Structures are given as C-alpha cells and as structure tokens.
Amino acid sequence: MKQYLYNYLSSQSGALTSEQVGLNFLMALIIGGIIYISYHFSHSGVVYSSRFNISLVMLTIITTLVMTVIGNNVALSLGMVGALSIVRFRTVIKDPRDTAYIFWCIAAGICCGVSEFFVAGIGTSILFLFLLVFGRIQSNDRYLLVIRGARKTEKEIETAVSIYYSGKARMRVKNTSPGNVELIYELSQKTLDRIKNQDKSITDKLYGIEGMDYVNLVSQNDEINR
C-alpha cells in the first residue's frame, strides 16, 4: 500500500513544454505590470513605495515559478508547503490595501502557473477597473487640537474653542495638574474647511488668553501618509 501511494504521488507530474513555460512567465510579467500600474495609480505621497511596487511584480513571477515547478505533482506540492512553512515574514504593512495587492499577486501567479490565463485576465481586469475608480479614495483625516495653559483659564479656553468651531470640536481628553490644564479636541476636515475664511486663527484667539503655554494641531490618519 505504501509503495502504491508513493508511486502514485511520484507519477503525478505534468510535463510542460518550454513554450508553455515561457507563456506562463510572459503572462505573469504582463499581469505583474498591470498590478504595478494599478499600485502606482492608487497610492500617492509618502505611503507609496517604489521598492514595494517592484516586489509585487516579483511576487507574481515567483508564484508562477513555484506553481510551474509543482505542476500536478502532489508529492512535490506537499514538500513545497513544508519548505515554505519555515519562512517567517515580518513585512510592515503601511496601508491596508497593500495586503490586498499581495493576495492579488499571489492569486495571479497561481493562475499563470497553471496556465489559467482566462481566469487571471478576467480577475485582473475587474480589480484594475475597480481600483481605477476607487483607488484614489483616501480615509477621512481627523485632527487633534492640543491646548495647554494655566488651570485658571480652563473655562475660558473651552468657551473660546466652542465659539470658534461652532460647537463642532469634540473634547476627547482633559488632563489637569495643580497649575495647568491640557485639553485635546477632535476636529474633522469639514470643520476646518468651514472656518478657513475667518479673520483670526484659533491660535491667535487662544494665545490672547493669559497663561497659555502652547497650541498644537496634529493630523490623525489610519494611513502613514503624513
């Protein structure tokens, strides 16, 4: 029985011609190029990494290479799984979309490795068009207004912020000490756009209060693009 299973697993190999192997890698390169263009289009600013983008193309080709080697050989596929299981990846994902791109490359490479070019082409086309439409959508920026001043001016600071932002500033943190108070407000991009035309900035108004130490405005975003 053991010998039968060994012979069965060893015999399940799909011999590919050099033309078929070349076609597999050519399609992987073409689809990898499409993924490269899509990633370049949908990412901008500091979050864009040209090295990561090149790695996506490489990942597509490498996956095709692995699938081409495995073919229909069940024994080889099990051995490959065991070999790859010892690898530990510690790549820092800066953008949640990067994970989707990695899976896209792996899926496209698998399809090209088994010569399923139609599936790879249709899937890549749908994803490319989807990202063409929605790829530039960014997460909403939120801003934190950090204020520190004398504790005796606490009520005056709260009143000034409430009036200036028409009650749209939400207090998130209040830290107090015997002599000082620190207030942290959350502001949306819409709220900041609404007060752009005001004559005086919030810093001018707050620094007009006696005992003010500092006023900071910090951008808070799910992505590392600031």
Task: Describe the model.
There is one protein chain. With 226 residues, the chain is of the alpha+beta class. The chain has two domains: 2-134, no CATH class; 142-220, ACT domain (Alpha-Beta Plaits). It contains nine helices and four strands. Strands 2-3-1-4 form a four-stranded antiparallel beta sheet. It is elongated, with a radius of gyration of 28 Å. The chain starts with a helix and ends in a 6-residue tail after the last strand.
Q: Show unreliable segments.
A: none
Rg (CA only): 28 Å
Strand order of the largest sheet: 2-3-1-4
* Total beta strand runs: 4
N-end to C-end Cα span: 63 Å
- Summed up, the domain count is 2
Furnish the topology, listing elements before pairings:
Layout: H1 2-11, H2 18-42, H3 50-70, H4 74-84, H5 96-113, H6 117-134, E1 142-150, H7 154-164, E2 170-176, E3 180-188, H8 189-194, H9 202-207, E4 212-220
Antiparallel strand pairs: 1-3, 1-4, 2-3
Helix pairs in contact: 2-3, 2-5, 2-6, 3-5, 5-6
Key features?
2 domains; four-stranded antiparallel β-sheet; Alpha-Beta Plaits; alpha+beta; 4 strands; 9 helices
